[in-house]
Amino acid sequence: MSARRTLFIGTSFLTALVALMIIERALAGEAAQGTVQAPRFEVDPFWPKPLPNGWVMGMAIGVGVDSNDHVWIVHRGDTLSPLETAADQNPPTAGCCRKAPPVLEFDAAGNLVGHWGGPGEGYEWPLSNHGIFVDHKNNVWIGGNDAKDAHILKFTKQGKFLMQFGHQGKSGGSNDTTTFGRVAKIYVDPKTNEAYIADGYGNKRVVVIDGDTGKFKRYWGAYGQKPDDTNIGPYDPSAPPAKQFRTPVHCADLSNDGLVYVCDRPNDRLQVFKADGTFVKEVFVAPKTLGDGSTWDVAFSKDPQQKYMYLADGKNEKIYVMDRQSLEILTSFGDGGRQPGQFFAVHSIATDSKGNIFTTETYEGRRLQKFVYKGIGAVPREQGTVWPSK
Amino acid sequence: VPTFQVDPFWPKPLPNHWLFGSITGVAVDAQNHVWVVHRGAPSMTARTEIGAATNPPTSEKCCVPAPQVMRFDPAGKVVSHWGGPGDGYNWPLSPGGMAVDAKGNVWIAAAGPADPLPGAGAGRGRGGAPAAPPPPDAHVLKFSGDGKFLLQIGKAGETGDDTSTTALHRPTAVDVDDTANEVYVADGMNNHRIVVFDAGSGKYKRHWGANGPTPFNAPSCVKLSKDGHVYVCDRRNNRIQVFRKDGTFVKEAVVAKDTRGEGSVWSVAFSNDAKQQFLYVADGANQKVWVLQRDTLATLSSVGGGGRWPGHFYGVSSVAVDSAGNLYTGETYEGKRLQKFVSKGMGRPAAKEQR
Q1: B264 touches chain A (CB under 8 A)
Q2: Residues of A in contact with B261 (CB under 8 A)
Q3: Does pTM surpass 0.95?
């Protein structure tokens, strides 16, 4: 064996050894830092494209994705300060900006392709719109959480009024079967055409109605029990779990395997039910969170099994990535702030067919943001702000 | 005209779950480090924004107010931070503009109380009857780069009118003439003049008001060009007035003349070329930075637009330029961002409104 060949073998061995050491270190590092295999996301800072017409958004209070991967949001223009809507003032105080219409439709590239909303003939536009959902028949559902909003609305995608269920100012409490109490969100089951209503900021229940007639089919409170509107005071993390939902009941989303995930927001928990209202299980998330609570909205991953669930927490300013079956939190991303991928009151969440996540922010966040799905990979338990890797 | 592109990933995410309040001052020092001063907790909503700073905390970790003075390196990393009450000086109720002089000392105008935010979050999250306002800020502060107190001109609560040689009334901005060792003060929200003091002793030197019959209305910047001219933002009059250092009037221009309310001319910065050929004007009412030709004061183009996405503004109140010609902006109100616009060299002003 020539000296050269010996050197070559020696070098190869050394290379292999170093490679092994690197792998070992990587594995040890993964364990030490507590990384986990989970869906990964990166914010797209240039999605959507700038709005036309000098339009700006108020509190962005709902997001949904339709079958064409168009992204729909509803926001509250009347929450904008006169300083920010100077061109709407009489007389205008500056050239920028104007309130955008309440309902905005974006294509997958982030172009604004549709807009409508506001009061009209034959229906009561919510005093404080809240939540948006596009159903399997391409109809758009909107709730409202003003003290007087006791109804939900259904429109075509073009904004033509179709149906109103319930009436403004007529809420009859959590056991009324004709009206609602400040609805937060609507989800329509494509198999049964039943609409699941998170009801809401006034009532303490989930209601299921027929998606065409609005006929009440069933409703339930926490643990599947009859709801009770007695004021149980503020959430106390050291007290036994509350027997009732605390308002707002903020989401009620149905998975493909027929489970209803309910955001019991101030109670910092998700409760899971069968479609008939039978209680299955619950999980507490960031249970020391006070005030607005931690469980604001959920969306599911796009695999047929919906293996993962994404939970928006507008109080701790992050998205939790959960294993949907075990309800274990695998990781989280996001943090407070005004830069891309950061949040101020992340309020609503939805996923498109590619697995991308869309979020809207209320209070002074007022953004629609896109988080691009980057496949399954190793991530830390707390990712913080997720910017693209360069 | 100079063209720019926003860098959405500058600065880096703040550590420690820190949040900016309303930003009132941005400056670039000799090392191209970017300084920012913001209003801190009083400009934040305790219930919704800084839950980790309340007693008891209402959120787990996010968020808490960042220290009010922060310094970023060119990569966008926080390299130092300080600010807040201390011995021997009056920390501002609400800071205004800032400047960093050639020695690396940091000057901050005390401009408070903060202007209220009409209609912000009306009925949702703010609310409660307004308390009686505390005695207003009436002073200017000088610190070393690491935050050691050096000098205070004027005193909180001891206001002076437009003739005072010792007292100010809500001064909004400062700039330093390093050669003459003089500090120029825009005075201010309640007065209508520029006042010059010795930058070492704080001794009064001279002052002057607007040229012409219309007094300054919220003069919100004062900035010295290399050729020895003093640029004054006469904010609510939508105009820039230019003076010699002795106060002799040189010229003026109106920007976005139809602007009402808070006005269009909030803060200025000069381009980085030797001749300082361009003037950048932050306009927190029209939500853009205007690009002006400095010699003619003609408006050439603008950068930005209203909104919460990168490159958009809500209340852009401050502007500064580094040695590479990059632009930095700070937003007050609920904008609360420090943004960087990377210089892309000279280009056609075809896009009259750049984003």
Answers
A1: yes
A2: 83, 86, 93-94
A3: no
What per-residue string of b and e applies to B42-65 under the rule 16 or more CB within 10 Å gives b? ebbbebbbbbbbeeeebbbbbbbb
Task: Supply B291's token pair.
Answer: 């690009």
**Range B313-319 average pLDDT:** 98
Q: What's the Cα-to-Cα distance from A294 to each of A287, A319, A326, rounded to whole Å?
A: 8, 10, 19
Which one of B7, B54, B62 makes the best mutation probe of the A interface by having the most chain A beta carbons within 10 Å? B62
Mean pLDDT, chain B, as a whole number?
A: 93
Cβ A300 vs Cβ A351: under 8 Å: yes
Q: Is the pLDDT of residue B355 over 70?
A: no
Q: What is the average pLDDT score of chain A?
A: 93
Mean pLDDT, range B17-30, rounded to an integer:
98
Give contacts of B 328-347 with A, CB under 8 A. 333-337
Rounded-to-integer distance, Cα B19 and Cα B63, Å: 7
pLDDT cut 70: percent of chain A above it: 91
Interface contact flag, B312 A50, Cβ < 8 Å? yes
Across the interface, of B120, B283, B355, the residue whose CB is closest to A50 is B355
Q: What number is the average pLDDT over the span B260-275?
A: 97
Per-residue HEC secondary structure of chain B comes to CEEEEEECCCCCCCHHHEECCCEEEEEECCCCCEEEEECCHHHCCCCCCCHHHCCCCCCCCCCEECCCEEEECCCCCEEEEECCCECCECCCCCEEEEEECCCCCEEEEECCCCCCCCCCCCCCCCCCCCCCCCCCCCEEEEECCCCCEEEEEEECCECCCCCCCCCCCCEEEEEEECCCCEEEEEECCCCCEEEEEECCCCCEEEEECCCCCCCCCCEEEEEECCCCEEEEEEHHHCEEEEEECCCCEEEEEECCCCCCCCCCCCEEEECCCCCCCEEEEEECCCCEEEEEECCCCCEEEEECCECCCCCCECCEEEEEECCCCCEEEEECCCCCCEEEEEEEEECCCCCCEEC
pLDDT-based confidence at A8, cuts 50/70/90?
Answer: very low
pLDDT score recorded for residue B133 = 67
- Give me the residue from A84, A92, A363 closest to B306, CB to CB: A84
Please tell me the predicted confidence (pLDDT) of residue A112.
98
Nearest to A315 among B59, B122, B311 (CB): B59
Q: How far is CA A370 from the centre of its chain?
A: 12
Q: What is the pLDDT, as a whole number, of residue A6?
A: 42
Please count the CA atoms within 13 angstroms of the CA of B268 that sit on its side-chain side: 34
> pLDDT tens, A228-242?
999 999 999 999 999
- Return the bridge partners of A130, or none: A143
pLDDT of B114 reads 79
- What is the structure's pLDDT at B348? 78
Task: Read off the pLDDT of residues B46-65 as tens digits, 9 standing for 90 and up.
Answer: 899 999 999 999 999 999 99
Name A26's Cβ contacts closer than 8 Å, sequence gap at least 6. Answer: none
Residues A157, A136: Cα–Cα separation, whole Å: 12
Q: Which residues of B touch A387 (CB under 8 A)?
A: 9, 13
| CA distance readout (Å), A91 to A82, A86, A99, A271, B217 | 12, 9, 15, 51, 20
- Given a cut of 50, whether residue B239 has pLDDT beyond it is yes
What's the gap in Å between the CA of A88 and the closest CA on chain B?
Answer: 12
Q: Which of B305, B269, B311 has the alpha carbon at shortest distance from B284?
A: B305
Distance from CA of A274 to the nearest CA of B (A): 31
pLDDT, tens digit, for every residue of A189-223? 999 999 999 999 999 999 999 999 999 999 999 99
Query: C-alpha angle A256/A261/A265, rounded to 5°?
Result: 155
Q: Who among B58, B121, B287 is closest to A290 (CB)?
A: B58
